[in-house]
UniProtKB/TrEMBL annotation:
Ranges where the Putative WW-binding domain occurs: 414-447
Region (Disordered): 473-498
Start and stop residues of the HEAT repeats: 204-243, 751-774
GO MF annotation terms: protein phosphatase regulator activity
The species this protein was found in: Chelydra serpentina (Snapping turtle)
Gene3D superfamilies reported in the protein's UniProt record: Leucine-rich Repeat Variant
InterPro entries, A to Z: ARM-like (IPR011989), ARM-type_fold (IPR016024), HEAT (IPR000357), HEAT_type_2 (IPR021133), PP2A_Regulatory_Subunit_A (IPR051023), WRNPLPNID (IPR033461)
Keywords tagged on the record: Repeat
GO cellular component, one term: cytoplasm
PANTHER family: SERINE/THREONINE-PROTEIN PHOSPHATASE PP2A 65 KDA REGULATORY SUBUNIT, WW-BINDING DOMAIN-CONTAINING PROTEIN-RELATED
Annotated protein name in UniProt: Putative WW-binding domain-containing protein
Length: 832
């Protein structure tokens, strides 16, 4: 056929990716010398000998369908042309065609009622056929198109089961080509989350399990390992524990370190889909294996996943904290169990009860009363389940509890200073048998009404788990510590790190992440990963076990790397929610104070959530920070204007935490200082801060403070020698009227005369804002619209004068109606 004769006529030589507004197939509408109809011309160029012609047709298929979709006969003709074009011998044409199928499918779904049938009969076979195309680019385009179609739910369930899955199973068969197999496995893993659970479990899961043990290609196993968490999430808990966990064990012990590293990276996702029993008894020892892996890269990935893995042990019902949809924490309702507090003469051997919901007891299957550092006695009385933490000296005798006066209390009362500041718990594991033998006497010694102690034996299950985990503690660093502890017996403080929420070896490994030796043998940024996941670990352990993390948190807060301290600064407000007000005041406030004096890179983390942290403190403690807020105005680098912008935003929120007198004495000065900042963005947000301060004064009937601030605004901004200050005065006045922050009579008496006097200002930028304030705000208020208003005449005269102003912008804004004005004040100032 030769070269396309219309190319020079319509300018396709200039076609490029930026020509979005141009219809690629516009040439079909241009009458040429061939006297063909547009549809015939389409067919002519679609099968031209010129490759470029065919590429243009393939690239413009969406426009073609838009033009011919109204007529059923033409539509079917176009579909047949597309099917023929899909068999083109040129790979670039096939690639262009495949890239257009997702947008074509979306268009047809919206415009044609018989979309499912047309798509299934004509387009879906092309997508499936291209998955086996010999050209790599064509296959890649078809894979991307398939995933988009699945994500948009454009493929019928019947096509998924009868067309898509069979071809993927064929491509991933043991005798398939290696390159095709790797691509098929990748698609299977990606599409698992888009299909129904039954389809994945019935059609794809067996092949996935088979591929996990592929001994020929490690690339296949690596793809399976990297996507293991997604597959577990797609099939659910039952299938995961029955079919996938055994395969996961095999991958975690693979001879190729890349496989073990991929398993460590997805460990949290796998853990989420298992039961607490499997998580504790099977996955925990497996994870310890990865942490002590001989390959440094595997250990590095494992330590990075350690905190997230620990977080999967979290139980909201026991922690009392739940995560909202926006990701923030909230206090939840506690369980039904009640706690017993001892008083009076039982100081020698107190029984401190910590609430443990009955659901946890059923899940963990533990009815014990002990762990290596503390004895837990689980008492069953009717439907209330409690756990008594027995503490005292080593010769603890339950009979000493005679005369104990107990009372029921709420869960909040459990977290008292005595519970958290008691001496470290002694090792009384040798007395467990004694406690068991005297369980029957417990009823006589304790005056708990009708309480019957049936069992007080140590949980054999937990003991077995701890013993099995200890067998895997072969990390060189851990072995070194064991030798050191053999020569130097552990001090009593080490026993305070014991808990029963997660397997103790996991916590020990997490606490060791602050060890300087870890930075040398594992990862130089291991402390940063520890700091990043610490809130999740704290949430998992609960505030009752904060003593396990306190020393680690203080070590991280004093780390020499500012990135570690910055990470803690950004999350300290969330940790405060987890710990509650008492522990926050005791342990977090000193660290928070240190962050306030740190580098700007650290201080910004505190500043971004300053309001969230201060609102958790008691009023007297919160008031101590009023003077320190002024330190935020000074930064290490004066050009760091975003720091001051963030300060102004936070101060707007913080206003509600303080009374009007404190706001006037401390925050007013900061606001006025920021109003004079060199950076425009900081000034404009600061003007809103001043308006919020005035609103607080008048809302709390502190009119005298409001009047003092108004007089200061007039003196500082209305009579400012720089036009920027006078412009700011006009903006503040407009905002005060818009937000109705103060009584109208106060405004017209103290601010309106100064505002109107700006009409004679020599700078047009000032008069522009005055025109906007008067025309768009004041004259729209009912007060100024009322007939006989004594101030209305003065305002209207000023507006008329501005309408005849020599500056066009001033006259425009003085005349334009409010609803027609969409210009932003900040943008206007930037233009000026």
């Amino acid at each position: 056929m030769g070269v396309w004769p219309l190319t020079s006529l319509i300018g396709f030589e200039d076609y490029g990716p930026d020509c979005d507004s141009m219809r690629i197939t516009a040439f079909l509408d241009i009458p040429g010398q061939d006297n063909l109809t547009p549809l015939a011309r389409l067919e002519k160029y679609a099968f031209s000998e010129n490759i470029f012609n065919r590429q243009i047709i393939a690239r413009g298929l969406l426009d073609v369908f838009r033009d011919f979709s109204n007529n059923e006969e033409d539509f079917l003709t176009v579909m047949e042309i597309v099917v023929r074009l899909s068999e083109d011998a040129e790979p670039t044409v096939r690639t262009e065609l495949m890239e257009q199928i997702p947008p074509i499918a979306i268009f047809l779904q919206e415009s044609r009622p018989n979309f499912p049938t047309a798509f299934s009969d004509y387009l879906m076979p092309i997508v499936v056929r291209y998955l086996t195309d010999p050209n790599n680019q064509v296959r890649k385009a078809s894979q991307e198109a398939l995933l988009i179609l699945l994500e948009q739910e454009l493929i019928a369930q019947n096509d998924i089961e009868n067309k898509v899955c069979p071809i993927l199973l064929d491509l991933s068969a043991p005798d398939s080509d290696d390159e095709y197999k790797v691509e098929a496995v990748n698609i299977i893993c990606k599409m698992a989350s888009m299909l129904s659970k039954t389809v994945v479990e019935r059609m794809l899961l067996p092949r996935f399990c088979e591929l996990c043990g592929d001994g020929k290609l490690f690339q296949v196993r690596k793809v399976c390992a990297a996507s293991f968490g997604d597959i577990c999430n797609a099939v659910g808990q039952e299938a995961t524990e029955r079919f996938l966990i055994p395969k996961f064990f095999e991958l975690c012990s693979d001879s190729v370190w890349g496989m073990r590293k991929a398993c460590a990276e997805c460990f949290m996702a796998v853990s989420y889909t298992t039961s607490p029993e499997v998580r504790r008894s099977k996955l925990s020892p497996l994870f310890i294996n990865l942490i002590s892996d001989p390959c440094r890269w595997v250990r590095q990935a494992a330590f990075q996943s350690l905190g997230p893995f620990i977080s999967t042990f979290a139980n909201p019902s026991s922690a009392g904290l739940y995560i909202r949809e926006d990701g923030t924490l909230r206090e939840g309702e506690k369980g039904g169990g009640k706690c017993i507090e001892t008083t009076g003469e039982t100081k020698a051997n107190p029984l401190i009860c910590v609430e443990i919901p009955r659901t946890d007891l059923l899940k963990e299957g533990s009815n014990s009363c002990g762990s290596p550092g503390e004895a837990l006695a689980r008492l069953s009385q009717n439907d209330n389940t409690t756990a008594c933490v027995i503490e005292g000296i080593k010769d603890c005798h339950v009979s000493n509890c005679r005369g104990m006066n107990s009372r029921f209390q709420s869960a909040e009362d459990v977290f008292n200073t005595f519970l958290y500041w008691r001496p470290p718990l002694p090792d009384i594991s040798q007395d467990l048998e004694l406690l068991q033998s005297k369980t029957e006497k417990h009823e006589e010694g304790c005056s708990v009404s009708k309480a019957i102690c049936n069992n007080c034996v140590a949980s054999s299950e937990i003991k077995k788990v701890l013993e099995s985990l200890q067998e895997h503690m072969d990390d060189p660093d851990v072995q070194g510590k064991k030798k050191e502890q053999h020569h130097n017996p552990p001090i009593e403080d080490d026993k305070s790190k014991l808990q029963d929420i997660i397997p103790q070896p996991l916590l020990d490994q997490y606490l060791s992440m602050t060890d300087p030796a870890r930075a040398q043998t594992v990862d130089t940024e291991i402390a940063k990963h520890c700091a990043y996941s610490l809130p999740g670990v704290a949430l998992t352990l609960g505030r009752q076990n904060w003593h396990c993390l306190k020393d680690t948190y203080e070590t991280l807060a004093a780390d020499v790397q500012w990135k570690v301290r910055r990470t803690l600064a950004f999350s300290i407000h969330e940790l405060a929610v987890i710990l509650g007000d008492q522990l926050t005041a005791a342990d977090l406030v000193p660290i928070f104070n240190g962050f306030l004096k740190d580098l700007d890179e650290v201080r910004i983390g505190v500043l971004k959530h300053l309001y969230d942290f201060l609102k958790l403190l008691h009023a007297d403690k919160r008031r101590e920070y009023l003077y320190q807020l002024q330190e935020f105005v000074v930064t290490d680098n004066s050009r760091n204007w975003r720091f001051r912008y963030e300060l102004a935003e936070q101060l707007i929120l913080i206003l509600e935490l303080y009374n009007p007198n404190d706001v006037y004495d401390y925050l007013r000065h900061i606001a006025l200082t920021l109003c004079s900042d060199k950076v425009s963005e900081v000034r404009w947000i600061s003007f809103k801060l001043v308006v919020a301060i005035l609103q607080k004064f008048y809302a709390n009937n502190a009119n005298a403070l409001g009047l003092n601030l108004i007089n200061e605004l007039v003196a500082r901004f209305r009579h400012c020698s720089k036009w920027i200050g006078r412009q700011a005065f006009a903006f503040i006045c407009q905002a005060l009227v818009e937000e109705e922050c103060m009584p109208v009579d106060h405004f017209v008496e103290h601010l309106l005369p100064s505002l109107l006097s700006l009409a004679s200002d020599p700078v047009p930028n000032v008069r522009v804002l005055l025109a906007k304030a008067l025309r768009q705000t004041l004259l729209e208020k009912a007060y100024f619209k009322s007939v006989g208003n004594p101030h209305l005449e003065a305002v209207e005269e000023t507006v008329l004068a501005l309408q005849s102003d020599r500056d066009q912008d001033v006259s425009f804004f003085a005349s334009v109606k409010p609803k027609l004005n969409n210009m932003d004040t900040t943008s206007l100032e930037k233009q000026n």
